[in-house]
């Protein structure tokens, strides 16, 4: 096994990528079986790059495991067990022989996972990053604020099990960054909101103090993720691109997700800009994103209040009193519907309930039309 030449300056130790005593303890049975620990630093179709104590290696991903069962697709950030090069694997398509490189044997259980709905809208979510400790939700101050998008990203971050932090980038291009920060803080309860500028260095020291463990950058193209990542890394390791003046949108300069050790400890995981941020069964994440609505809902007259038009609704009363913006409640309803729909695609019981409601509506409409025709 030889280290890839494209990473000559990267550390060659698992400890630099987050390996600790807890990881070592969890890996004990795999080590006893002759497997070696690794962390996926970049995943591609059919192969991936993983860091081990021998450096960063190209790893083959077999279609099935030794028993012929489908092997889970690895994601950047996953901890994995590799079968060393040249060792026999028994039966199955993962068999390796002398001269073969290391082979992925299994993906270890994920502690956290950042998951969104796939672009194809199938029932399977797309894992953007695994085993993340901090999710940096990047919001550009060089473009109009879009709170709906920020709420979506926060719901994804909370649902992952990691700790989100909102980072407002490009403060040097904003006339009143502090006002903008106060505005974003209202849609991010329980989350620290930091103002930064990669040009002037504003807020970068404060941000560094907030980061721990594996840090994932999340945001749309043009939000300044890669530029921010380069400042945290202390060098230009991530590709950056220009942003269109007309709408503030950028190009996808990051084409894949990869792990890079931070100079002060921890690991940075850069992700491509997200044009579509679909929710994938994020009920818990939404409850934390809209904590003020969830808190008010406890005082509603009905325990199953939908906060639409029910009498005694504490949420609607708060909206009427301008304590909660109507936009905020509308976003809450919209994201809840989207999350419930995503959940119903993977839960047969929920899907049957949704289909039953559709059929009831169809039968009601048909009966209404038939009645009208009889009256003519």
From TrEMBL:
<dbReference type="InterPro" id="IPR010914">
    <property type="entry name" value="RsgA_GTPase_dom"/>
</dbReference>
<keyword id="KW-0862">Zinc</keyword>
<keyword id="KW-0690">Ribosome biogenesis</keyword>
<feature type="binding site">
    <location>
        <begin position="169"/>
        <end position="172"/>
    </location>
    <ligand>
        <name>GTP</name>
    </ligand>
</feature>
<feature type="domain" description="CP-type G">
    <location>
        <begin position="116"/>
        <end position="277"/>
    </location>
</feature>
<dbReference type="InterPro" id="IPR004881">
    <property type="entry name" value="Ribosome_biogen_GTPase_RsgA"/>
</dbReference>
<keyword id="KW-0963">Cytoplasm</keyword>
<dbReference type="GO" id="GO:0005525">
    <property type="term" value="F:GTP binding"/>
</dbReference>
<comment type="function">
    <text>One of several proteins that assist in the late maturation steps of the functional core of the 30S ribosomal subunit. Helps release RbfA from mature subunits. May play a role in the assembly of ribosomal proteins into the subunit. Circularly permuted GTPase that catalyzes slow GTP hydrolysis, GTPase activity is stimulated by the 30S ribosomal subunit.</text>
</comment>
<feature type="binding site">
    <location>
        <position position="300"/>
    </location>
    <ligand>
        <name>Zn(2+)</name>
    </ligand>
</feature>
<comment type="similarity">
    <text>Belongs to the TRAFAC class YlqF/YawG GTPase family. RsgA subfamily.</text>
</comment>
<feature type="binding site">
    <location>
        <position position="305"/>
    </location>
    <ligand>
        <name>Zn(2+)</name>
    </ligand>
</feature>
<dbReference type="GO" id="GO:0003924">
    <property type="term" value="F:GTPase activity"/>
</dbReference>
<comment type="subunit">
    <text>Monomer. Associates with 30S ribosomal subunit, binds 16S rRNA.</text>
</comment>
<dbReference type="GO" id="GO:0019843">
    <property type="term" value="F:rRNA binding"/>
</dbReference>
<feature type="binding site">
    <location>
        <position position="307"/>
    </location>
    <ligand>
        <name>Zn(2+)</name>
    </ligand>
</feature>
<dbReference type="InterPro" id="IPR027417">
    <property type="entry name" value="P-loop_NTPase"/>
</dbReference>
<dbReference type="GO" id="GO:0046872">
    <property type="term" value="F:metal ion binding"/>
</dbReference>
<feature type="binding site">
    <location>
        <position position="313"/>
    </location>
    <ligand>
        <name>Zn(2+)</name>
    </ligand>
</feature>
<keyword id="KW-0699">rRNA-binding</keyword>
<dbReference type="GO" id="GO:0042274">
    <property type="term" value="P:ribosomal small subunit biogenesis"/>
</dbReference>
<keyword id="KW-0378">Hydrolase</keyword>
<dbReference type="InterPro" id="IPR030378">
    <property type="entry name" value="G_CP_dom"/>
</dbReference>
<feature type="binding site">
    <location>
        <begin position="219"/>
        <end position="227"/>
    </location>
    <ligand>
        <name>GTP</name>
    </ligand>
</feature>
<keyword id="KW-0479">Metal-binding</keyword>
<keyword id="KW-0547">Nucleotide-binding</keyword>
<keyword id="KW-0342">GTP-binding</keyword>
<protein>
    <recommendedName>
        <fullName>Small ribosomal subunit biogenesis GTPase RsgA</fullName>
        <ecNumber>3.6.1.-</ecNumber>
    </recommendedName>
</protein>
<dbReference type="GO" id="GO:0005737">
    <property type="term" value="C:cytoplasm"/>
</dbReference>
<dbReference type="Pfam" id="PF03193">
    <property type="entry name" value="RsgA_GTPase"/>
</dbReference>
<feature type="domain" description="EngC GTPase">
    <location>
        <begin position="130"/>
        <end position="275"/>
    </location>
</feature>
<keyword id="KW-0694">RNA-binding</keyword>
